[in-house]
Specification:
By secondary structure, the chain is α+β, with helices and mostly antiparallel strands. The chain is 56% helix and 15% strand. Helix 2 packs across helix 3.
């Protein structure tokens, strides 16, 4: 999943977030449990908010827009 594709979503699964971060599914769930990856829980479903994931990657919209204006 590219950053542009990621920006099209509000949330992604833990496995998808792990893939973006280069982690296995199990490592991603362990990172969520440890609080290293921000997450939301709805009943039994756990998702990762895309804005928080982008901030972790240093690719949040504010920085993305600044790079566009500078370039």
């Amino acid at each position: 999943m590219t950053l542009d594709e990621l920006r099209e979503h509000t949330t992604v699964t833990v496995a998808e977030a792990g893939a973006v971060l280069g982690l296995s599914r199990n490592a991603a769930y362990a990172a969520v449990k440890a609080g290293e990856i921000p997450s939301l829980t709805f009943g039994r479903r756990v998702v990762v908010p895309v804005p928080a994931l982008l901030r972790m990657l240093g690719a949040d919209d504010d920085q993305h827009d600044q790079h566009r204006r500078i370039a």
